[in-house]
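> forwarded from #structure-qc
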């Protein structure tokens, strides 16, 4: 990713972007569990307290492993594509057993019963990180909307709307990374940010409120918004 310095109001980033407490660490957004080595240079980093930095790890690992199980249709470490997930499965047989119990046959395919609170926890964490990193707009309140659906589960109209490059109806904060990008891009046009091809991309823009869209593993499409 390109390296841009945030020139927005520093008072917006002087605290943990997840809970509002004092900052003690820096956190990658997205977590490296969603990416493969070698990692891209200049990964987005935000300030976080120690508790939040460590507190999301298991849920992020769960989501990354769940997506891999669904995409590859197996809980066997030899059958998954991502080496990182295969390594986790080898080290954590209890987690593999958990996914095996959540697996069920549906027609000619497989489905997994997801632990939705854990998924919401991760998606909200990611969206808050992107809101601060791109827009310099911390969002500590509960979102007004949070949806996720497999990309292939969208009808053509939904997919076009989700993927479309929006034109901000309201300018992001002056000096934010997003405002700097708009100077380089076609005026007012917000572009998808690809952290790693095929693994993670996101879109952050201001409409009537803050909107964050995320695609993980080119499988799970998410939209989180604050009015």
């Amino acid at each position: 990713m390109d390296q841009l310095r945030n020139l927005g109001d520093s008072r917006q980033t002087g605290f943990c972007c997840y809970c509002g407490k004092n900052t003690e660490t820096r956190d990658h957004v997205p977590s490296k569990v969603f990416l493969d080595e070698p990692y891209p240079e200049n990964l987005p980093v935000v300030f976080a307290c120690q508790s939040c930095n460590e507190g999301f790890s298991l849920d992020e690992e769960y989501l990354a492993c769940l997506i891999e199980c669904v995409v590859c249709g197996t809980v066997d470490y030899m059958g998954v594509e991502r080496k990182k997930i295969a390594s986790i499965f080898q080290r954590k047989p209890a987690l593999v057993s958990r996914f095996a119990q959540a697996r069920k046959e549906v027609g000619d395919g497989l489905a997994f019963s997801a632990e939705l609170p854990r998924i919401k926890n991760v998606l909200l964490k990611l969206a808050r990180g992107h809101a601060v990193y791109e827009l310099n707009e911390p969002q500590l309140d509960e979102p007004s909307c949070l949806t996720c659906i497999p990309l292939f589960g969208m009808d053509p109209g939904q997919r076009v709307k989700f993927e479309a490059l929006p034109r901000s109806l309201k300018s992001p904060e002056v000096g934010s990374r997003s405002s700097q990008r708009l100077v380089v891009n076609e005026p007012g046009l917000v572009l998808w940010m690809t952290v790693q091809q095929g693994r993670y991309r996101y879109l952050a823009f201001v409409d009537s409120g803050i909107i964050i869209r995320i695609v993980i593993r080119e499988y799970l499409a998410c939209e989180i918004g604050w009015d």
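QC bot note: The beta strands are 25-28, 45-48, 103-106, 109-112, 145-150, 193-196, 200-206, 210-216, 220-226. The chain has seven helices and nine strands.
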